[in-house]
Write a structure and sequence with these properties.
The protein is mostly helical. Helices cover 84% and strands 0% of the residues.
Length: 212
């Protein structure tokens, strides 16, 4: 198979497993909607747009973390990752296929989360949609690499948040800036640069991570 063929086969595997098990996406949907409902009743009515947008990004960030914790569950429990590493394909294809699957899960959660945000807080503009789309790429790129690293450890549920949260703080900053300020272009460009840099680093280092 070609490189792209390997990537899409691996992504298709993740999507089919989720369609059959329905473990990850329903949990992400329940978490993000529940979080927005709590924020709606807990936040003062005079809260600023920046505060409301910041709470949305916190909800999206931890929703992504919830999905990433389960990203390599099937591979870890069935020792599939060992077989994938030994397969005659570029190991970076494993990373890219997993990224596509994670992005699909995030999009599925946000299809519900953004209308819920519009219902509870304020209308969703194009700036927020663009920021969320760029953030999904960065969260999936960084999170997939770190999830693969954490999958080899015993305290994986604790290790992943410790590694993941500091690295994605710039995404929250860029997302809030793009959706709550008068100059979204600068923050969207920042998110695009973050995605490009960390996607290249993650793609290049994934082979070392899974072999070690």
């Amino acid at each position: 198979m070609t490189y792209l063929g390997d990537v899409f086969a691996l992504a298709r595997k993740d999507l089919l497993l989720e369609l059959r098990s329905r473990d990850t996406v329903p949990a992400m949907l329940l978490f993000v909607v529940s979080t927005l409902v709590v924020f709606h009743f807990a936040l003062p009515s005079e809260a600023s747009a920046t505060a409301e947008t910041g709470l949305l990004w916190v909800a999206l960030l931890f929703t992504a973390l919830l999905g990433l914790v389960r990203a390599f569950v099937a591979e870890r429990e069935e020792r599939v990752l060992d077989g994938l590493v030994l397969a005659p394909c570029d190991r970076s294809a494993i990373w890219l296929g997993k990224v596509i699957g994670v992005v699909a899960f995030l999009v599925a959660a946000e299809v519900v989360a953004l209308p819920a945000y519009a219902l509870f807080f304020r209308p969703v503009g194009w700036e927020l949609v663009a920021a969320v789309a760029l953030a999904d790429l960065g969260l999936a790129a960084v999170g997939t690499l770190l999830a693969a690293m954490a999958a080899a450890g015993r305290a994986r549920e604790l290790l992943l948040p410790v590694l993941f949260l500091p690295l994605v703080i710039p995404i929250v900053v860029g997302g809030v800036g793009a959706s709550a300020t008068d100059d979204p272009g600068r923050y969207l460009a920042f998110l695009g640069l973050y995605d490009a840099v960390f996607a290249i680093l993650s793609w290049a280092s994934f082979e070392y991570v899974v072999t070690e």
